[in-house]
Amino acid sequence: MLKVLAVNAGSSTLKWKLFQMPQAETIARGQIERIGFKDARLEISTKQNNFSEELMIRNHQQAVDKLLKILTEYKVVERLDEIKGVGHRFVNGANHFAKSVIITDSVLKEMENLVEFAPLHNPANILAIKAFRKELPNAMSVAVFDTGFHQTLPEENIIYAIPYEYYEKFHIQKFGAHGISYRYVLQRFLEVSQHEEKSTNVIILHLGSGASVCAIHGGRSLDTSMGFSPVSGIAMQTRSGDVDPSLLIYLEEKLGVASKDVLQMLNNKSGILGLSGVSSDMREVMAVHQDNDRADLALKVFVNRIIKYIGAYATELGRLDAVVFTGGIGENIPYIRQLICDKLGIFGVAISDKLNEEKNKETKISTINSQVEVWTIPTNEELMIAEDVVKLYSESQNKISS
Prior knowledge:
- This protein is an alpha/beta fold.
- It contains 15 helices and 14 strands.
- The strands form two sheets. It has an eight-stranded mixed sheet, with helices on both faces. A six-stranded mixed sheet has the order 11-10-9-12-14-13, with helices on both faces.
- Helix 1 packs across helix 3 and helix 10 packs across helix 11.
- The chain is globular.
- Pathway: Metabolic intermediate biosynthesis; acetyl-CoA biosynthesis; acetyl-CoA from acetate: step 1/2.
- It is found in: Cytoplasm.
């Protein structure tokens, strides 16, 4: 039995779960938000206790120190050396990493060279990796890549129609995202639906604060909506999704700002927030959309962009067996699922109003007469990360014993 930490670090957040493996038992979970601010907030949940505290946490090193101190103080673990592995979500491994790897000094150096491919995410991932390696030097560190699942995309789906030499020299291509989530949800879908992996075509909608669509053929990613960066694809809570690239230059001139400022606007001030002017939280937008034209427009745009990708991907797949909803919005907001499925009549999609009301459950919500199955399956990226850690840990131990 192994205790494994699964870590998801953001620029100002540190989310984690501690598992007992291989039982996949969650021993504790928590997060630290607003790292770098005076009012950072730490939350931890165990079977016995829920704990929260507001305090000053200057950086990711302090966040890791505080987390590990809490784990021993609250007897989640008696000693830190009980933790045998730490798995880290790494957003963009470019085309350097096709699968999860043990983090050695040389691997970490390679990962540091990939910062430019996800400047909003990769630096925070690296800070957390370094902090945990320092505090838990005897625990195996593993990197699990969101882009790894999309290494199977055919060249025509990763290439941009710009001079080919840029693809060769600078690795300008579609990388995709949410691959850890897609791996988990696909695995669970195949288990609960009893579909055969090799003969199944499924479109998974990962709808959360970041959101994307993935077409999967025979267990492999065929196409996905996020591209070179996580700002592309469908409209999201604060991200624009696809826009005409000429827009960036136009706004630079009109606003008198730098291109990085326009990119920040597309990442942080657009999407549901930018359109509605109400909130980036879908629930708050839904609460007022009947009396607020901009909020209503934001919902329509969100659904419209998703429908366009589903239509394109269904054509690309040639046959559609199932649509699966996951992510915070996909799992927990039946109204959004209803709006999307109402637009899929051309594919013979029909869902049950009663079943669709279920939240955060593995549920088949399509009717018996629906020509395409529709499911909701809560994602569990942390468990997927922990399973990869256990696999690599076991392989390393077998090498030592042999």
